[in-house]
Amino acid sequence: MIKVAILTLSDKGSKGEREDLAGPLISEMITGIGATVEYYEVIPDEKDLIKKKLMDYSKKVDLVLTTGGTGLSPRDVTPEATLEVIDKEIPGIAETMRSAGMGKTNRAMLSRAVAGVRGNTLIINMPGSPKAVKEGLEAIIDVLPHAIEKINGSSEDCAVQGGVKP
User: Are 115 and 123 in contact (CB under 8 A)?
Assistant: First the structure.
């Protein structure tokens, strides 16, 4: 069972001025891979608070999925906070999400989302838009269980034969 924390970054959402649609969508989608959401929170776009939450959750769960704060506005600081707390970056995850989004809109190239590992926890930034979350998560969701196994020390071979993992 994969333990998950979902962290929505939204100034308006944290004040109750906007309903979070992306966080619940992530929760719904992630249960399809045998994951259970242990924590869900909506907090403001405050870099130090984001870092604190990422560090705290990385001691408790296998996967932290953030939504919001990956764009170009001055308050969008999720990638910076994430980069300051991860031990290893996994650029292929964010690249894959951006690539999937580019098939729908060229605005996907504006996402600054990052992904990486802190301790034994995979941390992935996702956009704040539910549509972008759906497209991005669909593109990476199948590889998440394997990534988490590897992060936790699995010595299972990563090779696939005939396009299907043996």
Answer: yes
Total domains in the chain come to: 1
Say if CB 26 and CB 2 are below 8 A apart.
no
State the residue for tokens 């600081």.
77
Cα Rg, the chain, nearest whole Å? 15
Q: How confident is the model at residue 162 (pLDDT cuts 50, 70, 90)?
A: low
Report residue 85 as tokens.
């707390």
pTM over 0.90: yes
Q: Tell me whether residue 69 is in a domain.
A: yes
The neighbour count for residue 52, using CB atoms within 10 Å, is: 14
Handedness of CA 48, 50, 56, 59 (dihedral sign): negative
Binned at pLDDT 50, 70 and 90, residue 161 comes out as: low
Q: Residue 147 and residue 107: Cα distance in Å, rounded?
A: 28
